[in-house]
């Protein structure tokens, strides 16, 4: 009986809510007239999703044909002259919707990982040392509320001035977006990690003193495991902020990614643009949901208390 109720709450109830949402959307969308036509309903949005899939498949086929022609041309050239210099070029077709999705995921992952690598040690250090916390806290409180739209021009100008290379490893647009994400999602992890460390049960710390654990051993064996819940709370908030910031940054700076796709469709102004933007909105939401689930799974795998119910 309990299993049936759990299944009902976990699968059927959200399913019913989603169906009700689609019905409400379908009924109200047709009543709203915009400059691009009637607001698309679920069916029109699904059709555009299929069109985007077809466009991606077509573009991949073009790329495959391009590389086959290039290989055949180079093989023919080498057959005539084994010492001939062959040219290998990358396919430069227009990025598809799914290429933009991959670019955004890759960029937000880069910015989030870099932010976490800095934020977790700083948060642990601030939690252990009250002096360090008092020194850094004013800077955190000043920079934490700064909008990504304010960071973006600064980062763009600095990257353009500093990152100068004839053979760059990364594009400037990628660096600009990733650094902006890093600057905006570093603060919640620092704060939550510091709070998690300072709220560790004093009995645990006293056990460490009794056992005469060294500083590093105390951090690894007591501080980090005990602060995992608060640390991951900060990481989840940071990742959510980073994902939202990235989309806004891509729209504003016209950097490759989902934000640019949305802005390009808005500028395009075709009859299908609104439905294609809605596809992007759903994909952005689904990816954000999946990223949060991924963090929950990671937290569960590293948490010492496996019976803890995570939400």
What is this structure's SSE topology?
Elements lengths: L1 H28 L3 E2 L2 E2 L3 H39 L16 H32 L1 H14 L4 H15 L9 H27 L3 H9 L4 H39 L4 H11 L4 H30 L9
Antiparallel strand pairs: 1-2
How would you portray this structure in words?
The protein is mainly α and 311 residues long. The protein has helices spanning 2-29, 42-80, 97-128, 130-143, 148-162, 172-198, 202-210, 215-253, 258-268, 273-302; strands spanning 33-34, 37-38. The chain has a two-stranded antiparallel ribbon with strand order 1-2. A hairpin with a 2-residue loop joins strand 1 (33-34) and strand 2 (37-38). The two termini are 23 Å apart. The model has no long low-confidence stretch (mean pLDDT 87).
